[in-house]
Structure formats: structure tokens, C-alpha cells
Amino acid sequence: DGGITQSPKYLFRKEGQNVTLSCEQNLNHDAMYWYRQDPGQGLRLIYYSQIVNDFQKGDIAEGYSVSREKKESFPLTVTSAQKNPTAFYLCASSRPSSGEGEQFFGPGTRLTVL
Amino acid sequence: KNQVEQSPQSLIILEGKNCTLQCNYTVSPFSNLRWYKQDTGRGPVSLTIMTFSENTKSNGRYTATLDADTKQSSLHITASQLSDSASYICVVSAQVDYKLSFGAGTTVTVRA
Predict the structure, then answer these.
(1) Chain A CA closest to residue B31
(2) Gap between the Cα atoms of A67 and B56, Å rounded
(3) Residue B25 in contact with residue B101, Cβ under 8 Å?
(4) Distance between CA atoms of B24 and B73, rounded to whole angstroms?
(5) In chain B, what percentage of residues exceed pLDDT 90?
(6) Residues of chain A below pLDDT 70
(7) Cβ-contact B33, B3 below 8 angstroms
(8) Nearest CB to A100; choose among B98, B101, B102
(9) SS3 for B7?
(10) For residue range A48-78, what is the model confidence (pLDDT) as tens digits?
(11) Which member of B36, B46, B99 has the closest CB to residue A99?
């Protein structure tokens, strides 16, 4: 898991609630990423940030929001607009913002909608 | 259609045996290919990375091969151990935007 921490490990959400997943890294990496992992599918990119105060949508950004106020932190909010949020969420970071660098992953947060 | 296809979806092997996992990709232009190991409920951890000019790379009992002409890679696990039980994910990076394409993974179960 390197120097990336995610919390909480398990999260339960009721219908209509917004929830925020935490991701912190102490690797001094410029780039950070959020992925969603569903059974039988490859990881899908939700949002990524190459530098503080800047972020871009990934392939499945609808229903999610992020912020990048500090280099070390990249929290993900799952809003009520996300219709099927139950999944395993992975945060990653890499040194080169170009994407060539290896991505280091956190331990993940499993979100379940009740 | 996913640009990275892995096979088999899952396999079961006895401890001490060898196995080979396959990865076919259509990502172009190709930059590099990585194999990650993901234990259940954990984040993926990098095993190997190969660029266009490399056709084999080892990391302990893990050996990855790459054929950039046929766009195929394999991951060979030698003398499997119970701790090798995990999902193995093939990840391909495109040269243009360095976007990563992930395979769905192969779940390996090693039994005593």
C-alpha cells in the first residue's frame, strides 16, 4: 500500500446521502487518481489530478466530485446523483504527472448502499 | 470493448505447480505494460513493468513476457505458494496520453 492511506475501509450509505472517501499520500507525488472497481471489470477512472487546485474528469465522473486543495489529499465525494455507487474505490498516486510513472495504490474503500 | 483482455478469468492450481496468465491488448500506440497483484480487499501492487523494447522481466518467481508485435503478454508463476492466491491485473499505458487501460484480472487460487 506504500504511503497512501484511504479511509474508511468500509462505508455504508443510505439512499440519497452524499459520502466522502478520504485519500492521503506522503510520497510527494504530483498526480493522484480515483478508480472504481466492480466484479469482473477492469478499474475505471473517475477523476484525476495532476497538480494542486486542478483536476479532470475520467471515464465515469457522473455522480462524483473531488477537490485537490493540498498536494497530499484528494478526497472523493459520492453524491446522491450516482445511481449505482456500491463498489470498491481505489485511490492512486504517481510521481510524473504525465502518467508514465508507476501508480501506487491505496488499500481501498468498500462502499455499500443500504 | 475493453482494450485489455485477460485469460483465463480464474484458475485453481496446487501448491508448487506453475501457471501462466495471458493478456492481449489493442492499446496503440503502446508505451508500457505492467502486471499488478491484488490481494482480496486490498489495493494492487506492481510486479513488473515492460516497455516496447523489453520482452521479458522477472521479479522473483514471477516472469512476465511481452510480444509487442502480436500485442500479447504473459505472466508465469513458478512453484506457486499459497500467498500467490490473488487477482493479477494487466495494465497497458498508451503513448499519446499515457492513459491506463486495465484488464479485468485473472483470479488465481493456490490450494495445498
Answers:
(1) A100
(2) 40
(3) yes
(4) 6
(5) 83
(6) 1-2, 96-100
(7) no
(8) B98
(9) strand
(10) 999 999 999 999 999 999 999 999 999 999 9
(11) B99
